[in-house]
């Protein structure tokens, strides 16, 4: 099993592999990129309302979001597309780098994300069953030595049995806000796709959280269970609706 230090170090990474297929943004118009000052993709988010994005809480550990550009409607990571800035963030009050569970954040954009290649997706309306297959989309890296893909890619991953999940991550996934996926296309976490959405039957049901190091096949990856954190997401939106200007102290870190 991974040590805490190892899991914490890789939690900004992704699960995609070089042989996954490229997809146009029209297939996943709810997917947005978070770009840093150098236009690197640091995380991915899911547009659930025109002005609100859901992503992983660990995507904002040290900075307040004012230096991040949010891009929608783009199939590649060139930074082209519909751009927005961040006006507020709410992080789940049970999330912490030591516990890893409840890894979810709600991001308010400075104005609605609207235009070509952009639309919202509904959140998961029911609990998930073991054995189902979810579709996960993002920008993959084949291994630690290769660059991120320039195009969106999608994999199919199966909801893992609890025993498999706990075998690798134990207490990090014992909280009911987390679940695991596995499959031949799941090769461990590489770089850049934290927060990628997992979709089941057209609904947003999982948030890519953490997993084993790059190109380790046969080991599951952990995701945040959207249905089980839905109350937090809806409450966060209500609270952020009341905030007109960005306030650093809206952050609710727990370290």
TrEMBL record:
<dbReference type="GO" id="GO:0004252">
    <property type="term" value="F:serine-type endopeptidase activity"/>
</dbReference>
<protein>
    <recommendedName>
        <fullName>Peptidase S1 domain-containing protein</fullName>
    </recommendedName>
</protein>
<dbReference type="InterPro" id="IPR001254">
    <property type="entry name" value="Trypsin_dom"/>
</dbReference>
<dbReference type="GO" id="GO:0006508">
    <property type="term" value="P:proteolysis"/>
</dbReference>
<keyword id="KW-0645">Protease</keyword>
<keyword id="KW-0378">Hydrolase</keyword>
<dbReference type="InterPro" id="IPR018114">
    <property type="entry name" value="TRYPSIN_HIS"/>
</dbReference>
<dbReference type="InterPro" id="IPR001314">
    <property type="entry name" value="Peptidase_S1A"/>
</dbReference>
<comment type="similarity">
    <text>Belongs to the peptidase S1 family.</text>
</comment>
<dbReference type="Pfam" id="PF00089">
    <property type="entry name" value="Trypsin"/>
</dbReference>
<dbReference type="InterPro" id="IPR009003">
    <property type="entry name" value="Peptidase_S1_PA"/>
</dbReference>
<dbReference type="InterPro" id="IPR050430">
    <property type="entry name" value="Peptidase_S1"/>
</dbReference>
<feature type="signal peptide">
    <location>
        <begin position="1"/>
        <end position="22"/>
    </location>
</feature>
<keyword id="KW-0720">Serine protease</keyword>
<dbReference type="InterPro" id="IPR043504">
    <property type="entry name" value="Peptidase_S1_PA_chymotrypsin"/>
</dbReference>
<keyword id="KW-0732">Signal</keyword>
<keyword id="KW-1015">Disulfide bond</keyword>
<feature type="domain" description="Peptidase S1">
    <location>
        <begin position="15"/>
        <end position="238"/>
    </location>
</feature>
């Amino acid at each position: 099993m991974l040590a805490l230090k190892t899991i914490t170090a890789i939690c900004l990474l992704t699960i995609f592999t070089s042989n996954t297929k490229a997809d146009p943004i029209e297939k996943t118009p709810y997917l947005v990129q978070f770009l840093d000052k150098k236009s690197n993709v640091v995380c991915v988010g899911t547009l659930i309302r025109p002005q609100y994005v859901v992503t992983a809480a660990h995507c904002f550990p040290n900075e307040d979001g004012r230096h991040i550009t949010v891009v929608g409607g783009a199939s590649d990571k060139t930074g082209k597309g519909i751009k927005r800035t961040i006006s507020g963030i709410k992080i789940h009050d049970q999330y912490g780098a030591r516990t890893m569970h409840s890894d979810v954040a709600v991001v308010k954009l400075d104005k609605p994300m609207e235009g070509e290649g952009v639309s919202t997706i509904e959140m998961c309306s029911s609990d998930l069953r073991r054995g189902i297959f979810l579709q996960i989309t993002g920008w993959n890296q084949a291994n630690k030595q290769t660059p991120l893909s320039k195009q969106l890619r999608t994999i199919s991953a199966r909801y893992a049995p609890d025993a498999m999940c706990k075998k690798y991550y134990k207490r990090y996934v014992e909280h009911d806000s987390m679940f695991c996926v596995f499959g031949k296309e799941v090769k461990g976490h590489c770089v850049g796709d934290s927060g990628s959405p997992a979709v089941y039957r057209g609904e947003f049901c999982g948030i890519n959280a953490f997993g084993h190091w790059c190109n380790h096949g046969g080991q599951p990856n952990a995701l945040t269970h959207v249905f089980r954190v839905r109350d937090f997401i809806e409450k966060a939106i209500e609270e952020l609706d009341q905030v007109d200007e960005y306030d650093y102290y809206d952050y609710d870190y727990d370290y």
